[in-house]
Amino acid sequence: MKIHGPNHTKVNAYQKQVHKQSPERIKEQSKADQLQISDQAKKMQETQQVQPQREARVEAIKQRVESGKYQIDAGKIAAKMLRFWNK
């Protein structure tokens, strides 16, 4: 038994789309992502120096984390998160 309907020629509509892709477009899709940093951003990174007070604080936190004495106040963090998201 054969079935011939009005849409018989459109059985594989997606096959046409596969053949429509040009080789140029396929090449574009295979390119890797690139990152470019502007000259102004590079200058900003070079001129910004870490403040001694901040560096000392970061070092103190590192030492507490490594020794296992670093405590986190979960309530304080939750309150700040709520304040941020409720803005």
UniProtKB/TrEMBL annotation:
Record key words, sorted: Bacterial flagellum biogenesis, Cell projection, Cilium, Flagellum, Repressor, Transcription, Transcription regulation
UniProt cross-references to InterPro entries, sorted A to Z: Anti-sigma-28_factor_FlgM_sf (IPR035890), FlgM (IPR007412), FlgM_C (IPR031316)
Residue ranges constituting the Anti-sigma-28 factor FlgM C-terminal domain according to the UniProt record: 33-82
Any single GO BP term: negative regulation of DNA-templated transcription
Pfam families per record: FlgM
Compositionally biased residues, Basic and acidic residues: 21-31
Residue segments, region Disordered: 1-55
Record's keyword annotation contains Transcription regulation: yes
Annotated coiled-coil segments of the chain: none
Keyword Transmembrane helix assigned: no
Annotated family: Belongs to the FlgM family.
Protein name: Negative regulator of flagellin synthesis
Phylogenetic classification of the source organism: Bacteria, Bacillati, Bacillota, Bacilli, Bacillales
